[in-house]
Design goal:
Length: about 600
């Protein structure tokens, strides 16, 4: 006897918006606020207490609610106090690198800077690291005693003194550093320095922590004196942005010219290994030896500039040209994996480089605030910092009513006819991270219902599962009445009304949301493909969203695949895998967005 397990062709993700809570960003979401500009339509570069000119990097200190911004063309770092409410074009509280908010001259001193490129922050020791790129050094500011305008740096890396600007490829010198990341667990500072990563042990209690200290490790080169570039598992093209995940001991490197992100997992290949140390994973490319960037797709990166990490939900944000990709790493990393969401474009195939609240030109730097669920994006070309707020889709606080208790319910039906109900089918309820919360079987009418334990503001997956026993004498169902490739379920949402958006994977595929079951005999005539595309938010009306009514009994989700034969376009529901035919549809997200505030 052979047992096969069949998974349904979609995953439902239910999200209830409440003030201060949202599980994920929405594709093409508007920024809630902008810093450095009075509004989202302005892009003027200037100097002042509320102005920016060439925003290269941002870093956020969660312990004090301070946002630091590398204002490169003004040769300074601004500090914004975000313990107060954010407002568009708000004033910075302090400035480093300049004596006041109206000066912007470059300098090679203990208090001056020349085009700061990147930032990192050490919260336990209250140290700010500033990549002073054109001075070939990293400045270390000790903020444990407070901050003041134009205060001097406490230490310098990459140079023997604050007055030298040597450049070179050695164990202590730098050559145009562009990125910083800090690991508080080992007190290690990673510096992206022209085709290599230098790693410094910056424990302030050790005698080796001195100006001009040596790096203890290196990535991207076989030794400290070699300077080469390329595209392989051990060599970079141009490392710009870097980020570190202390819990997983993983370093993320935006390899800009190779259109990829390299991931070093130091639990697999420790930094103490002999150089050159190989990368463990690659995102944006099918392997370590390619540097493709066109066409844009859900798993393709185009000139990635910056990376940042959300340690709570384990999400990696990658800023490339005209967009920010969000990767969900809760289930682990795989080479060339798909991104889960995109900011800066309506889908994964478009990067909107215009100037607006939902467009990004160059995401040169990013930082994530896990406490308040905010993503800060340094949009260099438009001289601004965009603030994307997961608890606020457009800058207006949500006003969700205290509606009836949430309930997720529905029936599981056979794929073949979309009508035959299937009793005894296990239906799993999982949280946003995929953790199984509870399982129940459909009743004699094929129905299921989850109510207990649902929390407003949380996100849930609903996955019907079919265990199918194939034998001469089937023990569960006659084979001919079983779903051939899975099941489909309708769902009823009891609670607030809202809209629904769908992400799908597969060229020419889409999810149809309707209030009635569709079959091949009345397949939709619309053509959502409109040029090869692998991402859609589409409904029976083709408008990208479906209005959900709290009183509506059920909504049906059906997967459709485009097929082209002799120039004729048809759509097939839930196709099986075929070596010659199209791949089955594998939608990765369905998000329910209640219409709060409307």
């Amino acid at each position: 006897m052979m047992t096969q397990r069949f998974w349904i062709g979609f995953i439902l993700i239910l999200t209830i918006f409440l003030p201060g809570r949202l599980a994920a960003f929405v594709n093409n979401q508007n920024a809630a606020y902008v810093l450095g500009q009075p509004n989202f339509a302005s892009a003027t570069g200037s100097v002042g207490q509320n102005a920016l000119n060439g925003t290269q990097s941002v870093v956020y200190d969660t312990s004090t609610a301070r946002l630091f911004v590398a204002d490169s063309n003004n040769h300074r770092v601004l500090m914004y106090d975000l313990s107060q409410p954010i407002t568009n074009g708000m004033n910075a509280a302090y400035v480093l690198g300049q004596p006041d908010f109206v000066s912007n001259g470059a300098a090679l001193t203990q208090t001056g800077m020349n085009s700061p490129m990147a930032l990192a922050y050490d919260a336990p020791n209250q140290r700010l690291f500033v990549d002073d790129g054109f001075n070939n050094r990293v400045l270390v500011f000790n903020l444990s005693g407070g901050i003041s305008n134009g205060m001097p740096a406490a230490h310098v890396l990459g140079q023997p003194t604050f007055l030298s600007t040597l450049w070179g490829t050695t164990q202590s010198l730098m050559r145009g550093p562009q990125g910083l990341a800090y690991d508080p667990s080992s007190q290690s500072l990673f510096v992206a320095d022209a085709f290599r990563i230098l790693v410094f042990h910056v424990d302030p209690s050790t005698p080796s922590y001195v100006d001009g200290m040596n790096a203890f490790a290196e990535l991207g080169e076989p030794d400290f004196t070699t300077r080469s570039f390329g595209c392989s598992q051990t060599i970079f093209g141009d490392d710009i942005g870097i980020a570190y995940d202390s819990s997983a001991q993983q370093l993320y490197i935006a390899d800009n010219s190779n259109h990829r992100v390299l991931v070093y997992d130091f639990t697999l290949t420790p930094l103490t290994n002999p150089a050159p140390i190989p990368a463990s994973f690659v995102l944006g490319e099918p392997n370590f030896n390619t540097s493709l960037w066109f066409p844009l797709a859900q798993n393709v990166e185009n000139l990635p500039y910056a990376v940042t990490f959300d340690p709570v939900s384990r999400r990696l944000f990658v800023g490339d040209f005209g967009r920010v990709l969000e990767y969900d790493l809760w289930g682990g990393l795989t080479n060339d994996m798909n991104a889960a969401h995109v900011l800066g474009g309506p889908n994964f195939l478009v990067n909107d480089v215009g100037i607006s609240a939902n467009s990004i030109m160059t995401a040169n730097g990013m930082a994530y605030d896990p406490t308040n669920q905010r993503l800060f994006v340094a949009d260099w070309h438009y001289n601004r910092v965009l603030v994307f707020d997961q608890t606020n889709l457009g800058g207006t606080p949500n006003a969700c009513p205290s509606g009836p208790a949430m309930q997720i319910c529905g029936t599981v039906v056979a794929t073949e006819d979309g009508v035959t109900t299937l009793p005894g089918i296990p239906v799993e309820l999982r949280d946003w991270h995929g953790t199984l919360l509870t399982t129940q079987k459909t009743n004699d009418s094929g129905a299921y219902s989850f109510t207990a334990g649902l929390t407003a503001g949380n996100t849930y997956y609903i996955t019907p599962e079919i265990d199918r026993t194939q034998s001469a004498t089937p023990t569960q169902y006659p084979i001919q009445s079983l779903p051939g490739i899975g099941a489909q379920a309708n769902l009823a949402l009891r609670g607030w009304p809202g809209t629904l958006q769908v992400n799908t994977a597969g060229v020419g595929s889409f999810i149809l949301i309707s209030t009635a079951v569709y079959s091949e005999s009345n397949a939709p005539t619309m053509n959502p493909a409109a040029g090869a595309s692998g991402y859609y938010t589409i409904t029976a009306q083709g408008d990208g969203t479906a209005a959900l009514s709290a009183s509506q009994g059920s909504y049906y989700m059906t997967c459709w695949q485009q097929r082209i034969s002799n120039g004729s376009v048809t759509y097939i529901r839930n196709p099986a895998t075929s070596s010659s035919g199209p791949h089955p549809i594998s939608p990765n997200q369905v998000t329910i967005i209640p219409a709060c505030g409307s």
